[in-house]
Specification:
Elements (H helix, E strand, L loop, with lengths): L12 H19 L7 H32 L24 H17 L2 H30 L1 H9 L5
Helix pairs in contact: 1-3, 1-4, 2-3, 3-4, 4-5
């Protein structure tokens, strides 16, 4: 009999994707700056960027705290020991990835480097395709109905 349980990958895609998105955004911002919104709307976006960064910190802190309490892994390539569904995981199945995407959006609003905004959406899409979809298969195989019920109740992103 063969084991049909999906196996985690070897490459930790999410951190690499978001670090690459930051580097690409900075380089493109220096070499090919895009126009940005000025005046009052620019000031509102600047303030919204800081609010976003506070949201990022809150998501990271609470997600890490909940995962520590559950005694499960932080490694995106490891099979989790426990299904975490409380705290920020009760609102988003991927609060850490959501925080990473929100980080890029917040930095775009604060710095006025539009590339961060574009790369935030590209990074989110790449993370979904390279990591989240595989992680969901692993979670469904390990936790079965409990995970499927959770996935029906809680959205993938927000």
């Amino acid at each position: 009999m063969t084991d049909v349980t999906p196996k985690p990958g070897l490459i930790p895609w999410p951190p690499l994707i978001y670090v690459a998105a930051i580097i690409i955004s900075v380089v493109l911002g220096l070499l090919y700056p895009l126009p940005w919104i000025g005046n009052l709307l620019g000031e509102i976006l600047f303030a919204a960027g800081w609010v976003a960064l506070f949201g990022v910190a809150a998501l990271w802190f609470t997600a890490i705290r909940v995962m520590l309490r559950a005694k499960t892994t932080f490694n995106p390539n490891a099979v989790p020991d426990h299904l975490v569904t409380s705290g920020p995981f009760s609102v988003s199945r991927n609060p850490m990835y959501l925080a990473n995407t929100l980080l890029l959006i917040g930095v775009a609003f604060i710095t006025g480097i539009a590339w961060f905004l574009l790369m935030g959406f590209i990074a989110a899409f790449a993370t979904q395709k390279l990591a989240i979809e595989k992680e969901e298969k692993i979670l469904a195989a390990k936790f079965g109905k409990k995970y499927r019920d959770y996935a029906k109740r809680v959205r993938r992103w927000i």
